# Entry
Amino acid sequence: MVAEVRGDYPTESAAINAVMVRLGIGSRETLRKWVRQDQIGSGQRPGTTTEESEQIRR
# Structure
């Protein structure tokens, strides 16, 4: 959802805040982490994917 509305706001932070309010999420940081993990999973940002984390845990 943040990616969908990103173009409507001057910064990603503003888009995150707008979505947070719209969805009633109490913590901006929670939504920011979800966005970052999605970016990692889709290859837009370096890092450990959710799948890789699962493999490490096993």
